[in-house]
Amino acid sequence: MSTKAGGVLFRMGYYFYSNTRLGYYYHKRNIEKAKALFSNGHSITTPHVCNGLQIVPIALIEDNYSYLIVDEESKTAVVVDPSDASVVQAVIETEGVNLKAILTTHKHWDHSGGNSELKSKYPDLLVYGSNVDHVPGLTNNLNDGEKFSVGCLEFTARFTPGHTIGHTVYILDASRYQSPGHVFTGDLLFMAGTGRMFESSAMEMLQSLDKVCELADDTFIWPGHEYAKSNLTFVQHIEPNNDKVKEKLDWVIEQRKERKMTIPSTLKEEKEYNPFLRTHTESILEIVGLKIDDECKDKEAIRAKALQELRSRKDKYCYKL
Ligand code: ZN
Ligand code: FE
What we know:
Elements (H helix, E strand, L loop, with lengths): L2 H17 L1 H17 L10 E3 L2 E8 L3 E8 L4 E5 L4 H11 L2 E6 L5 H4 L2 H7 L4 E4 L10 E2 L5 E4 L2 E7 L8 E6 L8 E5 L2 E2 L2 E2 L7 H12 L6 E4 L4 H11 L4 H15 L7 E2 H7 L8 H6 L11 H18 L5
Parallel strand pairs: 4-5, 5-6, 6-7, 11-14
Antiparallel strand pairs: 1-2, 2-3, 3-4, 8-9, 9-10, 10-11, 12-13, 14-15
Helix pairs in contact: 1-2, 6-11, 7-8
The protein binds zinc ion and fe (iii) ion.
The site of zinc ion has 5 residues, from loops.
């Protein structure tokens, strides 16, 4: 098949997956396939507990993560990207918490696929997200920088288009738990990687990534997928002399031998080894054959070009787990 025909087919497939009911049936089939593959989820997860705040990662489908965020005193809970309602509901029951809201990062079924089913089980459930993305069951549309609280859990939404046109990340202000912040990045930012730019330009994606980079360095990063091993293997391939990459990859390989989760990382770490957050650095620019010097009039355009180039190299880099 020619590259052009392949591209047309890919775009058609993407359209049907993200805009029609066919995508939902495909998602349901993926859930069943993954359940046959892993009886207890794709990864062994450990809750993050800190002074009355609990974040429970839930391993879903082949490599997705949903997160149950719990205020332990009130038992108020919020769930991020519950793509498989029955698994999420089982965790809610085990934890004995009161689910009040869903936070949806984007419309793709592997993130939003459980919204409607959970809403029918918990009729008062609020569903946060962006109406630009036609999030299923949406009750609360959010704008960039909007703050909202669910019980005493306080969040800020940032509008982060790139992977989809309405992608949104959620920042949990955990200061009342004497903890650094937490950001739930969906398919914008992964450990050592970024999502595909399906619906926006590289410049928009760059601006979205920059919004995350404005957060404090000690912010915990909770991504939408367990992609650390393949991402870091790619980064080591393009940047073999980065010691931070080697160090993290060695650790990830050990974790994955036992199917342990590799999340969370921190923003400080990501800034050290994630090339998609380092498009301003000489070393990354050199890898993609670009340069930003004093005469350069549009530094952002060069960075966007670097981001695009990194993304297309990643797309072409075939890595089998
Ligand atoms: Zn996605
Ligand atoms: Fe995804």
